[in-house]
Design a protein that fits this description.
alpha/beta, TIM Barrel
Length: about 280
């Protein structure tokens, strides 16, 4: 199999300000992605958050209408929040209207019970409810770091894309996912593994880390894991981090800029020129 290596992005911290300013920023971000070599754009799914987060379904519809090349997807769509039949229909229609550019990814969500209560979903049922839309015919990537997520990806999914995971943990997860697939008499394509990497580009790693520090979601993992799954520094350092995941079986990556909102477009432009071209042709 000839593996294609690709880098997509997820927006970083969203800028404060008036709705009009936010919408203008959104279109500038999407236009930047469309005209550069950025492969795809991904949107988080939350019901409540201390920071503004765009709702993924409606946002992806806007992206589909604005662009002709750029792929897009949710990272990840919290399946228990939605009717599985309605979610599958919406994703399928987005894929149809965009000419096949949707990259569906689902998961059970973060450990925030209040969000599930707001959605009217018992917290303990989130795993079972996530299995339901996976049984639809449209190919789906599965998010999540747990062994249950790897089992779900192997037995019912078409790819695995966790976040906040070290390269060593990622390698183990790829092996487990392939084992679960084999046990189920299935095969997950070898180029359907990847992860999210938070990054900040600067010639000085110290400066990059200082820029990123206020925006790093440190509650998700411990300090050693965070150090091993992020990339703060020059372009070479970001490339080296991606290569660590490549050695573990990864080929599709979502890079998210950790920086002040007013620096986000600059960070994405630098990623598109300093990192992506060499990686896409490796």
């Amino acid at each position: 199999m000839q593996i294609k290596y690709r880098i997509g992005i997820m927006p970083g911290p969203w800028p404060a300000g008036s709705p009009g300013e936010g919408v203008d920023f959104f279109w500038r971000l999407i236009d930047l992605c469309e005209r550069t070599e950025i492969d795809s754009v991904w949107f988080s799914d939350r019901l409540s958050s201390p920071l503004p987060i765009l709702e993924p379904m409606t946002t992806m519809a806007a992206v589909a209408a604005r662009t002709r090349r750029l792929k897009f997807g949710p990272s990840v769509l919290i399946a228990p929040f939605r009717s599985p039949v309605l979610a599958a229909r919406q994703l399928a229609m987005l894929d149809y209207l965009s000419g096949g550019r949707v990259l569906p990814a689902v998961g059970i969500g973060v450990e925030q019970e209040h969000e599930f209560l707001a959605a009217g979903v018992p917290f303990r049922e989130r795993g079972r409810r996530t299995d339901e839309p996976i049984q639809q015919p449209m190919p789906l990537w599965i998010g999540g770091n747990s062994e249950a997520a790897m089992r779900r990806a192997g037995r019912m999914g078409d790819g695995w894309i966790p976040s906040f995971i070290t390269p060593d943990q990622f390698r183990v997860g790829v092996d487990k996912t392939l084992t679960f697939a084999a046990e189920a008499g299935r095969e997950v394509p070898g180029d359907h593994f990847g992860t999210l990497v938070n990054y900040c580009l600067d010639a000085s790693p110290e400066t990059a880390r200082a820029l990123a520090l206020p925006f790093i979601p440190r509650a998700r993992v411990d300090a050693p894991t965070l150090d091993a799954c992020t990339a703060f520094g020059p372009a070479d350092l970001v490339g080296e981090r991606l290569e660590q995941y490549v050695k573990g079986g990864g080929s599709k990556f979502i890079l998210r800029p950790m920086c002040p909102p007013e620096r986000m477009l600059e960070q994405l432009a630098r990623l598109a020129t300093e990192v992506i071209p060499a990686f896409h042709t490796r």
